[in-house]
Design goal:
The chain is built from 13 helices and two strands. By secondary structure, it is mainly alpha-helical. Strand 1 and strand 2 form a beta hairpin.
């Protein structure tokens, strides 16, 4: 197996560096193979040490390392195989939840969002198709996807994509959020006219007045 070739095929590569200096590059089992190996292991059909060897040979990228696996320091093959099995799929409910948490984070990053948007506009594309495109083609398809999605009835996106900086992406907090945490200010706000509270912008006063009116209506309904 070749690291560059694996990367070109879209395989996600991993690396373990051992204290002795040995570095092992590997990819993961496909979903089908993981379940097959896990089933064999759970049923005791195949001894754990034999399974470790099979997994190591299947996933390690360096063919020379595979040929020398029986000459490696004790524990290296077992450790690598164990990590591969752990990352290739969940064996327990807790592991499933952990895997999904990481997957959701990964799905939220920029590249994934671009892929999702293009696939929504052009269902014939797979994520792998888009990942294999050069950047100039990805940009073109993304711009075309914007047009397609904006012209749908109803539109699936309202306007062209604009990426936000980390600061811009933070949710805006109403002045009321701070007031809720400060009991004295909230009491003053609820008992007196909004205009009596100093250091508020016109927009903050408007928001607070709306909150006060909504609370008054709720009290009226309860009465």
């Amino acid at each position: 197996m070749n690291i560059l070739e694996d990367a070109r095929q879209g395989k996600k590569l991993y690396r373990i560096t051992f204290p002795c200096g040995t570095i092992v590059h590997f990819n993961l089992l496909c979903w089908r193979d993981f379940n097959t190996f896990l089933n064999l292991l759970n049923k005791g059909t195949i001894p754990a040490d034999i399974l470790e060897d099979v997994v190591f040979k299947e996933c390690v990228c360096d063919q020379g390392m595979i040929e020398q696996m029986y000459e490696m320091r004790a524990g290296i093959v077992a450790t690598v195989a164990s990590v591969i099995m752990h990352l290739s799929g969940p064996a327990k409910l807790e592991e499933f939840n952990t895997h999904m948490d990481f997957a959701r984070e990964e799905a939220g990053i920029l590249n994934s969002q671009i892929i999702i948007l293009i696939c929504r506009a052009f269902p014939s594309y797979t994520p792998e198709d888009i990942e294999s495109m050069p950047w100039h083609k990805v940009k073109l398809r993304l711009a075309q996807a914007e047009q397609v999605l904006m012209q749908k009835n109803p539109p699936e996106i309202a306007e062209p994509i604009r990426l936000l900086s980390e600061e811009e992406a933070k949710p805006k907090k109403l002045i009321a959020d701070d007031l809720v945490l400060d009991g004295s200010k909230m009491n003053k706000f609820m008992k007196n006219d909004v205009n009596s509270i100093s250091d508020l912008t016109p927009e903050e006063r408007r928001q607070l007045q709306q909150i006060k009116e909504m609370r008054s209506k709720r009290r009226g309904r309860r009465g």
